[in-house]
Amino acid sequence: MSGISTALLVLGALLGAGYGIAVGEAALRGAGPAAVWLPLARAWSLLRQEDLVPRGADFRLFRSAPLPALVAVALGALVIPLGPDWIGFDPPIGVFYFIVVLGPFAVGMMNAGWSQNSKVGLFGTFRAAAHLISYEVPLGFAIIGPVMAAGSLSTTRIVAAQAGLWYAVWQPLGLAIYLPAALMVSFHHPFDIPQSGAELAGGVFSEYSGVRLLLWRVALDAMFVLLMAMGVVLFFGGGQGPLLPAPLWFLLKTAGLSAAVSIGTRFWPRLRQDQMLTLAWKVLLPASLLNVALVGILTLILIGGSP
C-alpha cells in the first residue's frame, strides 16, 4: 500500500475513533442506545446553524482558526504505524516530527479566542497559551524513555524494539507522565478549561457556531485519539499481538486506551489554571527527570546499553 493511501487510512481510522469517543461520552452521560446516533444528530444540528462571525472580530483569522488544528491532526497521523508496512511517512526522526507538528493545534486554539475581540475569548486564549507552554516539556521527557530504550526516533523502530516486552511494563512512570500530558495537548477533560467552564461561557469557542464549531469538535476528538495512538506506539507495542493482523491489534489497543482514559477521568473535577500549571511544573517535570534517569539505568541493565 502506498504511503498516501496508508496516511489516508490512518487519518480515517482516527476520525472514526473520534466518533467512537463521542459515542462513548454520550453513553457515559446516560444517553442509552441513543448514544450511537446522538453525535450525528448534534453534527446535523450544527450544520444547519448559520456560521456567524461576531461583530468586531478579525474575519479571516476567526474563520481560518480551525484549519491549523485539523492540519496538525492530519500531519501527526502520517507517522502513526498501523503495522510494519502500514505507515504514511516513516522519517528517522518520526517522534520529534510528531511533537513539532502538534504546535499548530494550540496556535489554532489561541487564534480562535484572540480573533473574537472579546474579553471571554481573550481569557480563553491566555489559558490555551498556558497549556502550550506547560505540556511540551513533560510530554517530551515522557517520550524520551521509549526513544532511549529503542535507540531511535523512528516510530516503526520503537514498535519493533518492544517485541517480547512492552515499554509500559518497565516504564510505568513514563506512561503515567505521558497520559496527563496527552490530555493537556488535546484539551481533554479535566484539562479543558480553555474551552469550558461557566465563567467563560465556552471560552475560545464562545462565539463559534455552525460548521466551524463542528470542525473544532471533530479536531478535539481526533487529537485525543491521535495522542492515544501515539501512546500505543510508545508504550504498548503498536500493532504487535498474536493471531490478529497488526492493524486490527493497533486499533483495538488504541480504542482500549482511549476508553480507559476517558472513563478514568470522567469524574475528575476540572482543574483550575493554577492547578494545571502546578501539576505540569511541580509534579510532572520533576517526575520526568526521574524517569529519564531510571530508564537510562534500566536500559543498561536490560539491553546492555545497545538497542
Structural account:
This protein has 307 residues and is mainly α. It has 13 helices and no strands. It has helices spanning 3-28, 38-48, 59-64, 66-77, 94-101, 103-114, 119-150, 155-160, 167-170, 172-185, 210-235, 246-264, 273-303. The longest helix is centred in the middle third of the chain and has 32 residues, at 119-150. The model has no long low-confidence stretch (mean pLDDT 81).
C-alpha geometry = globular
Structural class: mainly alpha
Q: Roughly how many Å is the radius of gyration?
A: 19 Å
The biggest beta sheet is recorded as: none
Calculate the terminal CA-CA distance, rounded to whole Å.
28 Å
Number of helices: 13
The percent range for helix content is 55-70%
Strand coverage percent:
under 5%
Written as H for each helix and E for each strand, in order along the chain, the element string is HHHHHHHHHHHHH
Low-confidence stretches: none
- Overall average residue pLDDT: 81
Using DSSP, what is the number of strands? 0
Provide a compact summary of the structure.
By secondary structure, the chain is an all-alpha fold.
Which features would summarize this protein structure in a list?
mainly alpha; 307 residues
What does the secondary structure layout of this molecule look like, with pairings?
Blueprint: H1 3-28, H2 38-48, H3 59-64, H4 66-77, H5 94-101, H6 103-114, H7 119-150, H8 155-160, H9 167-170, H10 172-185, H11 210-235, H12 246-264, H13 273-303
Helix pairs in contact: 1-11, 1-12, 2-11, 4-5, 4-6, 4-11, 6-7, 7-10, 7-13, 10-11, 10-13, 11-12
